[in-house]
Amino acid sequence: MDQKIWYIPARNDRLEKKVGIYCRVSTNEKEQLYSLAAQISALTRAVANVSQWRLADVFIDIASAKGEIPRREFERLLRECEAHNISVVLTKSISRFGRDTVETLSAINRLKAAGVRIIFEQENLDTDEVDSNLMISVMESLAQAENESRSGNIRLGLAMRAANGTSGLYKRKLYGYTKDKDEELVIDDEQAKVVRDIFRWYLDGASVLGIIKKLSDAGIPSPTGKGTWSKRSIEKMLENEKYTGTVTLLDSATQEYRYQMKECHPPIITESEFRAVQQEKKKRSNIVRDDDGKHRSSKKYSSKNK
């Protein structure tokens, strides 16, 4: 009797899982890129250590946790998971995954609805475990508090350096100055003459546009090397107290910290000249306010007057 032999393939109860790695750093500075490389390396090794896992894709974002910059790779990760192209997401930590508790839990719920497992390596958390959502909520809150504390420490450090005079902001270069071998501001004689001329012309009655014409006629390039100076560059120069040798630092975010260093560097103009220019600017203001609102009080120094 003829015998028929049928091939019956072995059942594979341990199907291969396609893994997606998600990494994020805040900036593209060198130290952050080193951190990014370390994240990718560690998570890739973790995937290699599990025989049923296969690395399907790596998703990388460079975006601050507090910024409004869209995380395109994070959104791509969610789409790939919902398309069932990835079944396991591996990430370094909760703070790298979501910007806050609401975003983190929203993403986790989307992924779990798609049947995707998420593992946070640093916290040793796994969404396949019971009560994982509650634990992740707690850990995310702690991570968020830690990030805010770190931001506060950075701001405190900046304030302390401003207070003790070691902040690099005191020595930020501007037109009229150069830096010596010790990174100290020293006067650039050629540019300083231009600065003095601009202040003198203004006090002698020249308008900002009139000053621009004088500079153009003299063939003097702007601070950026262009042939024509912008109106804003002249206005900013006339308002810059740094030309008197005094530097004032202000926290632009909160307006809380204000530090002033006098005789920070050699002055190009005197304090009395600077004050005179500020008084002249106020006097020339074309817009005055009365009980009925605003009206133009003078056309002597308007943009049409050279």
UniProtKB/TrEMBL annotation:
<dbReference type="InterPro" id="IPR006119">
    <property type="entry name" value="Resolv_N"/>
</dbReference>
<dbReference type="InterPro" id="IPR050639">
    <property type="entry name" value="SSR_resolvase"/>
</dbReference>
<dbReference type="Pfam" id="PF07508">
    <property type="entry name" value="Recombinase"/>
</dbReference>
<protein>
    <submittedName>
        <fullName>Resolvase</fullName>
    </submittedName>
</protein>
<feature type="region of interest" description="Disordered">
    <location>
        <begin position="276"/>
        <end position="306"/>
    </location>
</feature>
<feature type="domain" description="Recombinase">
    <location>
        <begin position="174"/>
        <end position="287"/>
    </location>
</feature>
<dbReference type="InterPro" id="IPR036162">
    <property type="entry name" value="Resolvase-like_N_sf"/>
</dbReference>
<dbReference type="GO" id="GO:0003677">
    <property type="term" value="F:DNA binding"/>
</dbReference>
<feature type="domain" description="Resolvase/invertase-type recombinase catalytic">
    <location>
        <begin position="18"/>
        <end position="165"/>
    </location>
</feature>
<dbReference type="Pfam" id="PF00239">
    <property type="entry name" value="Resolvase"/>
</dbReference>
<dbReference type="InterPro" id="IPR038109">
    <property type="entry name" value="DNA_bind_recomb_sf"/>
</dbReference>
<feature type="compositionally biased region" description="Basic residues">
    <location>
        <begin position="296"/>
        <end position="306"/>
    </location>
</feature>
<dbReference type="GO" id="GO:0000150">
    <property type="term" value="F:DNA strand exchange activity"/>
</dbReference>
<dbReference type="InterPro" id="IPR011109">
    <property type="entry name" value="DNA_bind_recombinase_dom"/>
</dbReference>
